[in-house]
Fold these 2 entries.
Entry 1:
Amino acid sequence: MQDNKPLVVGLAGFGTVGGGLCRLLRENADLVRRRCGRDIRIKTILVRNANKIREVETPAGAALVEDAAKIYADPEIDVVCELMGGIKPAKDLIDKALEHGKDIVSANKALLAEDGLGLFRKARKLGRALRYEASVAGAIPIVEILRESMSGNRITSLIGILNGTSNYILWEMTAGGLDFATALQQAHDLGYAEADPSLDIDGIDTAHKLTILIRLAFGIDYPFSSLYVRGIRDVSALDIRFAGEFGYNIKLIGQVRDVGEEGAPRLEAGVFPALAPKPSLMANVRGAVNAVRVDGNASGPLFFNGAGAGALPTAGSVLSDLIAIARYDRACNTGYDDSGLKKADIVPRAEWNATYYARVMVDDAPGVLRDISGCMAAHGVSVAQMIQKTETGQHAVPLVFMTHETTDLAMENALKMAAKKGLLREPAMCMRVL
Amino acid sequence: MQDNKPLVVGLAGFGTVGGGLCRLLRENADLVRRRCGRDIRIKTILVRNANKIREVETPAGAALVEDAAKIYADPEIDVVCELMGGIKPAKDLIDKALEHGKDIVSANKALLAEDGLGLFRKARKLGRALRYEASVAGAIPIVEILRESMSGNRITSLIGILNGTSNYILWEMTAGGLDFATALQQAHDLGYAEADPSLDIDGIDTAHKLTILIRLAFGIDYPFSSLYVRGIRDVSALDIRFAGEFGYNIKLIGQVRDVGEEGAPRLEAGVFPALAPKPSLMANVRGAVNAVRVDGNASGPLFFNGAGAGALPTAGSVLSDLIAIARYDRACNTGYDDSGLKKADIVPRAEWNATYYARVMVDDAPGVLRDISGCMAAHGVSVAQMIQKTETGQHAVPLVFMTHETTDLAMENALKMAAKKGLLREPAMCMRVL
């Protein structure tokens, strides 16, 4: 039923995400073994030029090849992991790999949005997995959430901030008061925006992702070409300001709403800049970050926020797909080999390290502050901020302070010392600062 | 390999969540069929008193029984869904059901926290699924996220607001200025708090959930009895106020941090009130809501927010577990029978219904406001708010307004009319309000 031989991967594409995946497989190797009961090994990496000097280390034992057949036709390879991007050669590779009995992991949003339906049909016919967690919203596991976790829900609405570059630009315009051109230049300088930023700022990238999410949420084919798409080029500093005066932040969103009857979804979907009420979680998504809000008829609103791009966040999603394929044992109930979990190595509370808030009630008398400070100092607790207020007519007055980093034990002992000296009129209140 | 016969469920417990599950199975029946290729049918419901009058409708064809053996020993039943709560009888039922070859779905956090390890070992030995999405954080799919979606990550830290009642009380103290006793009373009156609220406000419920999450995140046994637990009874209005002055909100959290070396986790874990910086997502979790922040070495920080309790949110999580068991086909790539997805029924943009923001640049001249308003009125667009500012020396001045609900088409036509009449000095800017 299952064996422990490694899952053998053919990797297509050795750029940012491919390099991140190799690094994660190295750094998290033990964990991967505990989570799926076997190793995951990259055997072959398909690249355009095998002789190019690379910054990323090639995984031990892996061969760089320029011929796609060395990936899709190698009988030893179990999974083809497609991180090339683009439509044409990626589609050919996946088609051929499916035909050769490989499972597929892909991060290719453009391909999955525009040609996904055919690929899914083919994968299903051949009984292969085609997984694509990394294609939408980077580290946010929205594909799994819609496919598995929310499977009991009728989805009524989904709103996503799915393009980090656009969100960065709009956030800089909002919080920093920049105009569009300056914010875009800044995104370039920080490496968030490509030389040609049109996929990002014209909404195409968001539209690819929204197409994939609509399919997952409703099990319906919403053709990418039918999606209304409008980018953020015409959002001016003036609009940001006026929206702010009305109490809103401007966000580039992909949105779909089911406005139909139960059982007969009618979908209103598009990509466009929109105004989100300032107190909402959506309005407060800052910088090059992604977020998705999904409303289900059971769950109510759920909100997810996290890194939408980057080598490791995206590679982590790719790796979760590989691990899912490597686990052929459905009774993996804890996500680990749970036949004999190790006991935790527990840090005793005395060693807990944090900054703390403490409130003591003291006499409103000279010398009290000095005495309390003395107790702190005696246990190496350094005070960062303090509030002392005299409230007239009160017998005991509060003295409140925030510490620099210290241990739970030091705090406890310092406060015990103050109590012992008779400085406290009530038991002290102490809480960790996150 | 698979057939289409219904998944037959024996339900133990017919309270709030059990009733919610029956309702969802009825309302979302078509969807469930599309998502797992078969029906999910409740055959038998174990209750304490079969003759009690119930508000909830018994599912068609289901029998109420008082004898547990009618659930665990019925050869026709595939899955036992345990929603009784409590330790003793629930554990016996699950033990016996596993021995009779049933898969298990449970929402029992106390049982899973205190005796989970033995149950998982048994389930694994017998090759059965033991799923428990609903046991932690209601509708937030944190079990699946840790077990599957973040499986490529080494988890470095997890912080959860896992008890809605406590969060409601602290939020009312923060936003409403109430003292603890008044906020607790209010939680009672709204049905958030039990007659004996100690499980909630003393942190026990949070501790059960944290124990389960630690096991999922680290694959390590952190005994529930070793967890440091402190509740919110001693959080005073004074502390809420001072924390506020320092820029923090007070939250009851469950927290675990890995402070060990790579590959050798050392865990610092506990339940306690703590100060969250006001701009953080965690500080802004309002009312009886749950949230979890997880940091992974690949993903970086991920934040999840949603309903932590309630009939339908919890039942939705139970149902997702049942669907996972009902799907024995791993190549379910879209989460639906994707051999032939239907085309979407697309709402044309003209019919999109929303409130809108519009900015027009107009001459600073008498009658312009009247003319613009006339264009709006002519297309049935009703203006809710307006900003008009004269900026000296400017030729064209902005006129900005927010509408009541209207259609995209009406907005477009109204603005076209204004342009045609020569009222606009620049193209109009129009955006949807979320």
Entry 2:
Amino acid sequence: MTEDLEFEETNGNVSLVPLGGLGEFGLNMMVYETENDIIVIDTGFMLPNADMPGVDLIFPDIHYLVERKEKVRGILLTHGHEDHIGALFYVLRQLDVPVYGTQLTLAIASGRLREYNVLGKAQLNTVAPGDTVELGDFSAEFIHVTHSIPDTVAIALRTPVGIIVHTGDFKFDMTPIDGKMSDIQTLARLGSEGVHLLVSDSTNAERPGQTPSERSIYGTIDNIFQKADQKLFLCTFSSSLHRIQQFIELANVHRRLVAVTGRSLLNNVRTASELGYLNLNPDYLIDARDASMFKPHEVVILCTGSQGEPRSALSLMALDNHPFLKVERGDTVVMSARIIPGNEKAIGNVVNHLLRRGAKIHHERNANVHVSGHGSSEDLKLMLNLLQPKFFMPVHGEYQNLMRHAELAESVGIQSDNVKVAEDGELIRLTSETCEIFGREGRSGRVLVDGKPEFELEDIVLRDRIQLSEDGIVVPVIVLHSDTGADISTTDNKSNLENMLNGIEDVSGIVQTDIPSETGLNAGQIEIISRGFVYMDKSEELMEEAKEITRSVIENLSDEQKQETETVQDEIRGALRRFFSKQTQRSPLIFPVVMRV
Amino acid sequence: MTEDLEFEETNGNVSLVPLGGLGEFGLNMMVYETENDIIVIDTGFMLPNADMPGVDLIFPDIHYLVERKEKVRGILLTHGHEDHIGALFYVLRQLDVPVYGTQLTLAIASGRLREYNVLGKAQLNTVAPGDTVELGDFSAEFIHVTHSIPDTVAIALRTPVGIIVHTGDFKFDMTPIDGKMSDIQTLARLGSEGVHLLVSDSTNAERPGQTPSERSIYGTIDNIFQKADQKLFLCTFSSSLHRIQQFIELANVHRRLVAVTGRSLLNNVRTASELGYLNLNPDYLIDARDASMFKPHEVVILCTGSQGEPRSALSLMALDNHPFLKVERGDTVVMSARIIPGNEKAIGNVVNHLLRRGAKIHHERNANVHVSGHGSSEDLKLMLNLLQPKFFMPVHGEYQNLMRHAELAESVGIQSDNVKVAEDGELIRLTSETCEIFGREGRSGRVLVDGKPEFELEDIVLRDRIQLSEDGIVVPVIVLHSDTGADISTTDNKSNLENMLNGIEDVSGIVQTDIPSETGLNAGQIEIISRGFVYMDKSEELMEEAKEITRSVIENLSDEQKQETETVQDEIRGALRRFFSKQTQRSPLIFPVVMRV
């Protein structure tokens, strides 16, 4: 009897642990777990915001998986966007498990795996829509859906508690570029069979209506081609292969040669056309370095940089810094991508510079040159109505998007109590009867990477950077002399002082003084160095005073106190903090260094 | 003959020097100059973006005016928004000139003048719409226009070359809250008389159609009042007095008491109601500290924070950090303001947190709770058609807004050659026949202020901060011993080392070593300190290696080289830069300090 109960309580259950994507855009990663087995859907990364200085990449914290690595049966990928596959190399370095994805998804993922030397040991398994894979307690069926990249799938999991459908990113494009519709029939069949839990994409939950077909922008771009009488720059994400397909078709129609620039764009175009996901006549392709050899109206240049990324081709051209491409008066630039929140300023700067060069600019806000790959409210309702799930959990988005998606679910009749808005790191327990959020997993979170992925950026380092950027740093360096009878000549020190002052040209400030050696520990030299605090040429007086304060702090310490480096530092830090705050209303990091000789 | 020509070339001309607002939002300030006289329209400031860490305020560089201070006859203000008056105290500290503005504008401006101790000496002259002021070669007529703050004026300047109309901010609100329409009659009369140059607001040039009346949001807010059964928070800019008037009226209708929180909001409400610009029944006002004493449905709280400003009332409430106000489940929050580009992330964070507390949120993107105070395309065309100027110059906006406004001007028939898109710091020369951009004024630009306005933030300091924020700072401190025969005991140094390591708890890293004293100048102690670079607990090995590299750099220097502090620093900096770049792919600021004893 007890045994039966225990079996019911544990063996029969499925836990969900969202490691990323619930409370932010990006980092998509969901753990599904039974007593014996774990599978993971997607391993995405995220790009940092402006409030994370010096951060290159953000990965989900995968301690939860590493601690249970013997249970992990596989990683399932829904599609080839970086917010779903970008952390794969990072995960595979720590977990040696099979990966399942469609042909294009794995081909794109392989690029980065190769770059980070994990391709060799990676167990990549190609699946096709319609395939089913058995992974311990889970059976995963891959279902084709339309999105801005081909070969995208939703995943239906058969689990001990019932069917879970994890949509990944999707829209219902009724006229997709590659002719492959979302597999509505399979979704409807699952709905008839009975879906226990739907886990669905909330990206566009706040948009009313239906997301238009990818094909809906064709006319606008065609019109832009017709009117362009000089060079034409078409800028989009390197993974927007349906978009690129349309650009290439229109280039053919308008008899322009196609130059592709940017490593990621070139890689994706090459991969997709080799695998047949992009229909490309090589006769129309030219090397971007040769673009200037043709007349302006004979070429179209495909490039990246739609988000104003400073090192992208478009940003370089906007500032006339690109090695071989130039935007000139009369050229046309199409930014065929979403303006991602947070990037408005950077994009605006690029637009302003391009306009100054005399280019015509078409972007999302002034022309119909972009359409989303994510379903809007009515698409999300269609998914809900096709599947008619008992329980519903929104994923992919900030809290406001998840909340809005929850409202949509209730609006189509899902019981309010059965709609669960969870966030990263919460544990969701699913039984055949219930779905409850029952706690938090302590070790979830984000891993910030700056430079090499081996060097995780700790929160404390990031906090330091933010404080450094606010008010700079002041480093008082104090040499304390033990009373050894050593002859410390003032003249010698003077010449040293001159060396110091003359020698350092790129220093925002150095002030140095000599204090006569007395008995006990004495301040022999005091320097105050600063970066990012005040401009020294104008603040000599301020630093002279700071130096005096430092000296008097030391002089007022007892010999016992002087022996305690911590005490010396604390006293100096406190005195200078008060002084600088009063004088400048700034709060630099103050970091006293005590040297003893 | 020569004299006549000279007279024509100089005496007859008017120069325009935009010191701010042409190429950005904010900083609005325009200089109009003849041979004898200068007048200035508006003195705005700007708030910094995320890419300017630690900057509090931005002012226009006014060297151009200071160098010509004896010519400046007056400052004319169009309205009381900070992007038009926020730099007045900064300007009046350097220029002792009369200021002209309407009653409300001067009342609002006085607050900041008082705060910065310039109110006493300020020569403030109140004007009313319809008034004309003579200022040397200029005669300025003030013309009422509608905007989001009452008592706004456009200014018509009669100059030696003809009439210049400077619109300031405006819309054509046909049903303004205070019943005072834009003075279309006067504008039309000027148009008939003949306008030489129109200088007009481009803020909303990219928006199609007409900006709706301020009154158009009344119904939505009314509806929100009806549905709110708990506390209601209404959040807007402290200067949006028409908006605040509507909130107060609706509070009366729905029998809610009004609590106002936030210093700027309280000041503006007090000033405007004293002067009769706000119709306010004091019986309905309560102290925000007492709001919790009433039932939730009995109060409405007016607050600021619509841009997600971290120290605003709304942001504090979102994080449950407000001293006496609390957002709770079932409360309603209305963010009745524009989502300013660049603030999306901060606003999104506040919205997410408010939703987590269970509040209902209405903002610009999901409800009709905000309307702009700036005219859209059709309003701008109406202004152009009323005035029918010979020349046109768009102001107030980024380059893309100015360009769009220029297109609108051409679309209503202004000759393309007569439309001049200038930017900050360019000099525009206006004769009775021509209008030409003929150069740049070198000393224009921006003054960044961090802390007290006395401490201008130099570009080099800002650049340092940005670099510090990217990769942190590393400070190697080297003590070089002159060979004085001094007995430097290793034991002593060891205990010092322990002191150092124990003493500093909030240091991200200190590494220290002892090098035996030999002959000549020797490295006695080497420490490497870092902030914002790597997390020291995990990077001890890295810093040990860095220390070894520093030591070997010094050992490989000749005694002569060791005498040159600059050489020692350069060598250490170079070696460590290469080392850190290879090991971590990061480029911290490296700032060696050489101490000599």
